[in-house]
Amino acid sequence: MNQLQEVSASLPATTMPYKAFKITPLSIALLLFAVGVHMCATSVAYAGGAIKPPLVAENSAAKPPEPSGNLTGHGGPVKAVAVNQSGARALTGSFDYAMMLWDLTGAAPKQAARFDAHEGAINAVAFVPGDRFALAAGDDGSVWMWDLKTGKLHHRFKGHSAKINHLSVSSDGRFAVSASWDRTARIWDLRALKSGPVLKGHKGPVNAAVFSQDGLRVYTASYDGTIGLWDRVSGAYQRPVIKPGWGVNVLVRLPRGAQISTQTGDNDEQEPGEHLLWGALNGAAGIVEGRSGKIIAKLPSHDRPVLAVAAIAKPGLIVTGGGGGVIRVMRIGDWAVIEEYQNALGPVWA
After folding, report:
1. I want to staple 208 with a disulfide (CB 3.0 to 4.6 A). Which of 41, 72, 221, 337 is the partner?
2. In terms of C-beta density within 10 A (0-12 exposed, 13-18 middle, 19 or more buried), how is residue 236 classed?
3. What is the mean pLDDT of residues 298-306?
């Protein structure tokens, strides 16, 4: 059985208001969620475990204890979370201007480092493949590249004229793309430490940007109600992928190896291509094939805006989180909802 790591929300310790992350043994996937309440309280939860039907009793004595404990350190709402490929480390970004690195390998997760030289709230964090470097970006409009081995700033990329809301790194670790409320996305060369093409054309803030699997194209999600496709090398706009109409808040490319199929009568046919999970301001969410724009699935809507999405290849799960505090876990392929959680604290931000 696959061993998964799971996230849920829980109340912060009363002695550490809006600074604690509670560790609880539930059952989602290799995912973390940052939860805010009226912008004044936060909680992130993380634990190891396997997917199982909810409300099923188990003999806890027959298994080793799950990791547990509070991750404390941030002084404000947590807006961004990232987990490295092995699941051994996590990054969090907060309104307190800091990015924090966490060690998840022990029985109790530990704070490994804190990076707080930023000049604005941190809205996006990302590991660079290889785990030597990490990126942070936010309200100051810069992309900060940190050396996780030395703890020192490696480079600061400047160019945006407004806040950055999202970051992605190409699969080979060569490039990063940032999405900004200045209505552009920007490519950054992480090896040459130079700026690349500026993706201009959206008529509203750009909320998210992700690379294609081969790194040659970029998909962007905008408040103007479209998902766009761009050439990474030239920065040229190619075409709209889909036009949901409402502002698109979040976007993620399904990982390579995820099995997508379409049902045709009694037969299941594999659906080739590059698949994107998106969520919108009106609570809608769906799966679209990036190259063709074909709608693969319409997912259950949230009552409030979709603010967070995530995906994991094995065992094949996607997750959506909304402004109403609902975290919904679905299976890739048939898109069945297998678990759902209601967080009483408020919106799920990341």
Report:
1. 221
2. exposed
3. 97
Strand partners, 80: 93
Side chain identity at 91, as an amino acid letter? Answer: L
Q: Which residues pair with 89 in a beta bridge?
A: 103
Closest CA to 93 of 42, 37, 40: 42
Q: In the predicted model, is pLDDT for residue 12 greater than 50? A: no
The two three-digit tokens of residue 225, written as one number: 């109600």
Contact 70, 18 (CB under 8 A): no
Where do we find the tokens 């931000």?
Answer: 349
Q: Quick check: 327 and 311 in contact, CB under 8 A?
A: no
Structure tokens at 191: 């090896």
Separation CA 273–CA 294 (nearest Å): 10
∠ Cα 73 78 83 (to 5°): 85
Structure tokens at 16: 């550490």
Residue 298 is which amino acid? Answer: K
Q: To which residue do tokens 């807006």 refer?
A: 79
Q: With beta carbons less than 8 A apart as the criterion, state whether 344 and 32 touch.
A: no
Q: Compute the distance between CA of residue 270 and CA of residue 237 in angstroms, rounded to an integer.
A: 29
The Cα–Cα gap between 109 and 23 comes to 9
The model's confidence at residue 39, banded by pLDDT at 50, 70 and 90, is very low
- State the Cα–Cα distance between residues 249 and 247, nearest whole angstrom: 6
**Which residues make Cβ contacts (< 8 Å) with residue 186, sequence separation at least 6?**
157, 159, 160, 177, 178, 180, 195, 196, 197, 198, 199
DSSP class of residue 40 equals S
Reported pTM: 0.83
> Which residue matches tokens 């995820």?
258
Using the 8-state DSSP alphabet, how is residue 64 labeled? P
Tokens describing residue 188: 């950054």
3-state DSSP call for residue 62? helix
Q: Tens digits of per-residue pLDDT, 164-212?
A: 999 999 999 999 999 999 999 999 999 999 999 999 999 999 999 999 9
CB-based burial label for 79 (10 Å; 0-12, 13-18, 19+): buried
